[in-house]
Amino acid sequence: MVQSPPLENPWFVKAFDRHWLRLYAHRDDAEAVAAAPGILKLLGLGVGQRVLDVACGGGRYARALADRGMRVTGVDLSADLLQVAREKSPDLPGTPDYFQRDVRALPFHQQFDGAISMFTSFGYFDRRKDDLAIFRGTHRALVKGGRFVLDFMNAEQVRATLVPQEERNDGTLHVQLERRIADGPFGTCVFKRVRASDADSGRPVASFEERVRLYTPDEVDALLVEAGFSLRGDRMGDVHGAAFGAEAARYVRVAERS
Q1: How many domains does the chain have?
Q2: Cα–Cα distance between 58 and 198 in angstroms, integer?
Q3: pLDDT in tens, 98-112
């Protein structure tokens, strides 16, 4: 395991822009629409209830839930991604509200019936207490009995399947990826260096490094409990209730404000 120094500037401030959406175009609205029924079943919610999307990005899950009758509020730090979310949402019934906010300082108090955090939108900070602040703010935002659905990576599966280098063409982009797991002052993290260029001209389009803390399921659960949540049901491998195990790509956990 290599040692890696802390980054001087938060990677997510640079990474999350419109180029990021192009790089992850396969994580699209269709995927969110397919996940929506499972998410709502886990939340236990019906039409007209209020959902908080923590780190909503471009709003694909917010749109999918709003389209099924939820009153959705999305929060994210990226102005670029929030602008995309607003551009794609105007014709929805019950158009989602979007706010630019650091998710460590959520301003809500018992205003939501449920909350979600999807596609590993968690674990970005150097200090564990910052990640705990996200969960505490989410807990505070929920009414009593409100549930929180967290979709995170499965640490064991990531360790077993990590591909150190990859190169591919995605539409008009040529993408080079380097991945590693490293220990540092902030704990064990997954690092991914992303370089993208125009596939025809070779002109650079984007270059950044992603870094996500490699929390184990036990560590995630401990954070949720410390934030005040009660854990509900079994660990799952997806939002549709697949069994969780070493080979599951995701770690999905439901927690509740008691």
Answers
A1: 2
A2: 22
A3: 999 999 999 999 999
